[in-house]
Structures
1.
Amino acid sequence: MQTQRKNDFSKGSIPRNILSLAIPLTVAQLTVVLYNVVDRAFIGHIDTIGRDAFTGIGLVLPVTYIITAFANLCGTGGAPLCSIARGRGDDKRAERIMGVSFTFLLLLGLGCMAVFYLLHEPILYLVGGSPETVVHAKNYLLIYLAGTIPVMIGLGMNPFINSQGFGKTGMMTTLLGAVINLILDPILIFGFHMGVQGAALATVIAQICSAWWALAFLTGKRAILRLTRASMGLDGDILRRVCSLGLTGFTFSVTNSIVHALGSAQLQFYGSQMGGTATGDLYVAAMTAITSIREIVLQPAHGLTQGAQPVIGYNYGAGQYSRVRGCIKFVTVSVFLYCLPVWLLLLAIPGVFIRIFNDDPALLEVGVKTMRIYYAAYVMMGFQMIGQNTFVAMGRAKHAVFFSLLRKVILVVPLMLLLPRLWNLGVYGIFAAEPISDAVGGLAAYTTMMCTVWREMKQPDKQLSQ
């Protein structure tokens, strides 16, 4: 006879199970994004240097995406495996997965910090920097890197809190950091006249607080699965499985870094041909604003799909295949109902969103035009996330990684290189690469998921022991 398990996702309402995780997870993810975006908004409104400083922060984004990628490798790789192990009743195995993931995360954090401290200046010029913007990027990045390990702990260990069903606690991990960052930003940037260095310092302090909260919970008595010394260390078999499944989240962030870096470099090149370095910097600033907006508007859809991961994984592990289908149905309808009105809003009033970061007339003119191109097929991104996250939840690493690579590397990178040369599109061809990849990638990921996972889940449920 099996005792009643805490946070048993094989029972109760599917929408309630998903939303109990998705709502706090969405709030948590939004706060992570917001305290990064708030930095950019404050920096963009610094007197005299605002636009150059804002552009400089855009040069730092590829580095932050790489750091996030390694955190995702451990978090999004280990947490679904924990959910599957819990669904099978093997909590000891689940704790070992978490401990191995944490150990690997610390090693990766030290490596990232060392590499970026050594190579920061050539990297900033490589991704489209100019002397006017790199100075601000360096001032921010050299302080931000001091918080590499705390940010990786906050991002990489929070999925292990959510996978146990403690969505509100996971939300607090990032909410705590966001509140601290929001308080410190204006004080340090404007009150102490620290500029971009103040924004970076506020972020580091906030990240330390978030990391402390996550570790305090995972080592405390409330957690179902605890992070202990005995569970830590490296295990080759577990590490291979974590890295295999985590490649999806890793690839997503790495490809974001590659695309943003390539896009900025291309915009600097083609923009400079139109009117010198200043024009190149203007288009880089527009891309920074547009991608910052994207980070915000994607989070609710991310929250829904990632909130469903533990529920799908648990039910798959428990053999409750009809409930897996129910999860897919609910997430599909919910994500589409969110993405459609947001898409229309982005196309209708792009200027409102650009002004969040800077109200320079030249940036507004360029930003409005390029934003409508960039978001032309945004609604299709929802289907990409549904298909990809379903594969992750069920441990189908190869499918998940392939569709992440398809959209960003196989489609966007060649299009960014090719389209500017066709029909005199120039800088506008760079922005046009995104909607093409959204449409093709979204349809491919969702259709494949329906033709594989959905069909497989039509088999009879396994009988649960009482």
2.
Amino acid sequence: MEKIKISILSIILLAFITGCSEAKKDTGTNIAEISDEALLDSVQRRTFNYFWDGAEPVSGMARERFHMDGDYGRHDKNTVTSGGSGFGIMAILSGIERGYITKAQGLERYEKIITFLEKADSFHGVFPHWWNGETGKVIGFGDKDNGGDLVETSFLFQGLLAVHQYYVNGTDAEKALAARIDRLWKAIDWNWHRNGTNQLYWHWSPDHSWEMNFSIRGYNECLITFILAASSPTHGVPAEVYTEGWGEGGQIIGPHELEGYKLNMRYQSDAGVGPLFWAHYSFLGLDPNGLKDRYADYFQEMKNYTLINRAYCIRNPKGFKGYSEDSWGLSASYSVKGYAAHAPSENLDEGVISPTAALSSIVYTPEESMKVIRKFYSMGDKLMGPYGFYDAFSETDNWYPQRYLAIDQGPIAVMIENHRSQLLWKLFMSHPDIQNGLKKLGFESPYLRK
């Protein structure tokens, strides 16, 4: 066992040294000579490695976090995440298509992940936020949050349904994997999480039942949860759960303007807009292009949502160092004093830039986000490590922690791939259950006309 530990540490150290030397080599004075495509591929490949080389070895799942200094505090580095793994599962698909790994390697990893999920703790088919990756036993996210997490399960299955579509017409082994994913998908009891209402409730605990009492209401990161709940062929919820719960009987509509950009929806934030990951998580598989319902044109809404974030950072009302048109992006991430949901308002801005914010928005703001990628890449190993850009930094506080979070790394790799090829969008949106769910809820999408 000791030899195994030493071997793993050696691999990690080698990856770190290699990554840093490559960053120095690639991000010096010649940054202007690197093409956009080459730059995107470099960032995508490094970020993919968080979910490949950096995965928890027993389960194959994404570690919830990875700290280069080895200091995890009260957390265990073997803690794996359901939602972050869903993002990583999609990143691995892009890695197969980009040739970072072979198809055989990808299939083997997915088989390991599915074997883990088939045996791991679940509750009415719903998975928890965290598990121990070695045992599959739930790790509580909070005092009463030790059961099913419907939203994190949604993020996981957004990825798994894309994998299903990738393999469903493949070899016998690939079809077998798709069938196993389908069984897990059909086992989720979305109706259980209604708790007898036309709402969806985020959490259920075998010890505390519905005590958290957190109904999911728009707009935040949870649109995908309602779409999957409506799409289930076995436990699908009626459209009223969407309109009365997420849409709050129409109250989700709240036209307003910030930083000169118009929004049509009311956001679950006193600032009128929230952290930038709200424009990312639901849209890793759900293609916002041409996606419309009674509440919004989602591409235009999320583009303006991103531009508000950028414009606020450029205006920089609190005078933080380092904010500019090529260094912006406020989202939930590590912060100087712990963890915070940074957003474009003076109450929620702590001078911390989160690379995932602008990079994962590349599908909405390609030119603006490329400027940020070039700037961050030019900062070398201060900001870049073996698994891509570190989670957050503050020039004001001279704070550059060498730490990663799965939920922030995943959207970078996935959205860069969607920007380059639309791969994950095409796969997820091709699933017949998803198309049925979107129709049930009254959505328009180019995928529904094919």
3.
Amino acid sequence: MPALPLARIPPFHRLLTLPLLGLLLAAGTANAQSRLPPEVNAALARAKVPAEALAVLVVDVDGRAPARLSHRTGVPMNPASVMKLVTTFAALDTLGPNYTWTTPVYVEGTARNGTLYGNVYIKGQGDPKLVMERLWLLLRRVQGLDIKTIAGDIVLDRSAFEVAAPDPGEFDGERLRPYNAAPDALLLNYKSVVMTFVPDRSANAAHVSFDPPLAGVQLQTHVPLIETDCGDYRAALRADLTDPARIRFAGRYPANCGEKVWPLAYADPASYAVRAVEGMWREMGGQLQGRVREGTVPAGLAPAFELASPALAEVIRDVNKYSNNVMAQQLFLTLSLAQKGIGSFAASREVLQGWWKERFGADDLPVLDNGSGLSRNERISAQALAKLLQHVWRSPLLPELASSLPITGVDGTLRRVRNRAQGSAHLKTGSLRDVTAVAGFVDGRSGRRYVLVAMANHANASAARPAIEALIEWTVNDQ
């Protein structure tokens, strides 16, 4: 897809009001083709998904021409991760593309000869990208204050978010899948452990490394090899991951796999931050005479320094291209943290609905839950999503939002799509057990550009992906 220019809307069109644009969209969809293209219907039939389970809208980005295709556009649908479009653009619009999260670090007491006689406090403020490398940097800066030994405690302050601790397996029973990680004011490395397996035939074993190091967890660092095809190496390992105090393997690692990386959610997410901070501090040579614990920063204590996150415009690339659920929820909670001083799902739903009403009016409001799409309750219509995307097209923030979307056949969640639409669309994807969806921008071969929204809600929704891919190709082939 060619670079999206900032100044390509005629001046008279820039003066159109949002209500008028809404009327144009409604009028365009009323006159649009309502029958699905034959290739889409054929793919739906093969998937055993009825057309009534699909909502589709294909319309020019500027809304000045009738929609090419309109099918059940006003029906509220579960969009799965396509809902991230609403969260990420609302964040860009309200916080600004250069917004950063800061994680302040406080030092209480006196440091003498490399020893701090007091406590270190780390206050989480919602940073969605406080990954292992940046935690190392934060602790290295503590050591740069001539603190190698802490005679007191390291205290983790997670009070910026008011979020109940959920059961990580509640959504789909997959409690060890990283996508089910819950948001946290001090979210470290997505509460995940990354295991790397490197086979060594001379030792007849695979070396296993774990990142980050977790204090108090026994880790099996070698697994016997087996000479077989790679296949399902995870099943061959027969990993025991349920005990928070131990990770071990009862099986073998296929030597023909080469190096493999396996990320998983830690079995006890509530203790993850405490274990990760202590493990990293000690691995860096730091000494701790007290312990790592949770608490709050004492009133009146000034930060010794702050660690800043990447800018929001960079963060949303991870959120949208790779559909990172916990990062999206961190961002969603930040909407209320920035406005109200505390982040909660209820407050963020209120903030985002207020923003939607201001931009698009009170009709066709999306139903929000956690802002990530990892929900059975979130709903939005194809018409509402198209309205949002047409607004994005006119916005100065278009380059930031569009560049965060996967490109068909190129990267992100669309990198494996190989068809005639390759490179011609920037689309956010969504997938749940009963949902398959896409929404974004498509370049037609005629030179016209479209907003495309397609959502399937059905027990066989996963089988409807070929139908949606056929729809993308149909949109591209507009000559």
